[in-house]
Amino acid sequence: MSVVGVILTGGLSRRFGSPKALAMYESHMFYEIVAQRLAPFVDKVIISTSKQLLPRWEKAKNLTNIKIVTDEDRFAGEGPLAGIYSAMVAEEADQYLVLPCDTPFIGVEILEQLICSNSSADVIAFQCQNRKHPLVGFYRRSNLEQIALFLESGNRRVMDYLTIVETSWIMAKPEYEGMFQNINQPQDLQVTNQ
């Protein structure tokens, strides 16, 4: 089974103030941290971004063996599902291991759970305590046309999409909750590390 790692980086990062994927944490950019976490589990890593952010990526370093993909024109700016769809169009694989760029605390333990899952569902994602994390998961290639049809309907909400495909939720241990934290503002990094 071929597996492609997809780092979602297409958001405008309004609250953060600059593209989050290129923000620094412990001397590494967010995307570098996420790419390092994905590397042992995938055949290739893709950064899925918007055309608007492409000039920033052209200046980024350490992109060896990482492919940059922009949103397909028909779904440009339509959120994470558009990013996943665009990665699937750009690189054929059986499965796509998806992570948002703003989860630098994601641990190897989480990715190992996904890899070891025996589920044959279209999407395998995490729930930790009462919160679901749909963008930390496996998306099978079987989602390609379903995502396109869903986006064409005018809906872009990931949780709505997961109600129309077979989705398996893995229960993460409560102590892993901090690994799923999205960094939305620079001070979120300081709060997490106190």
Describe the fold and architecture.
- By secondary structure, the chain is of the alpha/beta class.
- The protein has one domain (3-192): Spore Coat Polysaccharide Biosynthesis Protein SpsA, Chain A, CATH 3.90.550.10.
- It has helices spanning 30-38, 54-58, 80-90, 108-116, 144-152, 158-162, 186-192, and strands spanning 3-8, 24-25, 28-29, 44-49, 66-70, 95-100, 123-128, 131-140, 167-172.
- The strands form 2 sheets. The chain has a 7-stranded mixed beta sheet, sandwiched between helices.
- α3 packs across α5.
- The radius of gyration is 16 Å and the shape is globular.
- The N and C termini lie far apart (41 Å).
CATH topology: Spore Coat Polysaccharide Biosynthesis Protein SpsA, Chain A
Strands side by side in the biggest sheet: 5-4-1-6-8-7-9
Question: Using DSSP, what is the number of strands?
Answer: 9
- What structural class is derived from the secondary structure elements? alpha/beta
Gyration radius over CA: 16 Å
> Main sheet?
7 strands, mixed
Low-confidence stretches: none
User: Mean of residue pLDDT?
Assistant: 86
> What is the number of helical segments per DSSP (H or I, 4+ residues)?
7
CATH architecture call: Alpha-Beta Complex
Helix content: 25-40%
Fourth CATH level, the homologous superfamily: Spore Coat Polysaccharide Biosynthesis Protein SpsA, Chain A
Distance between the termini: 41 Å
Strand residue content: 25-35%
Helices and strands, in order, run as EEEHEHEHEHEEHHEH
CATH class: Alpha Beta
Shape: globular
Domain module count: 1
